[in-house]
Automatic annotation (TrEMBL):
InterPro entries in UniProt: YiaA-like, YiaAB
Tagged with keyword Transmembrane helix: yes
Protein name according to UniProt: YiaAB two helix domain-containing protein
Taxonomy of the source species: Bacteria, Bacillati, Actinomycetota, Actinomycetes, Mycobacteriales
The keyword Transmembrane belongs to this UniProt entry's keyword annotation: yes
Originating species: Nocardia alba
Keywords: Membrane, Transmembrane, Transmembrane helix
Length: 94
């Protein structure tokens, strides 16, 4: 029988992810602002960066949701198997 504990992220891992996100977003924004480009080129890079950030959030959510679904399906299958084993137990006294 398995335990139903979910793995938890440490606070250091969460802080590292948040800091990395802020630094990369700031670096991209500063790079776009200081590149010797026309306004429309800066706008294109800014919109591309914004689309990249939002699509990364969406992808992360989809991957998390699929993993949670697989975990739930696995637990349901395990419970069904345990029920079948309990019903077919040949050592059970009648």
């Amino acid at each position: 029988m398995s335990t139903n504990t979910k793995p938890k992220n440490t606070s250091a891992y969460v802080a590292q992810a948040a800091i990395a996100f802020v630094v990369s977003l700031f670096g991209t924004g500063a790079g776009i602002a200081y590149l010797p480009l026309d306004t429309w080129q800066r706008g294109f890079l800014a919109m591309s960066g914004l689309f990249l950030v939002t699509s990364c959030f969406t992808l992360a959510k989809v991957v998390r949701d699929q993993q949670e679904t697989q975990t739930l399906i696995g637990r349901i299958d395990e419970a069904r198997l345990e029920q079948l084993i309990a019903e077919r137990n040949s050592f059970k006294s009648v």
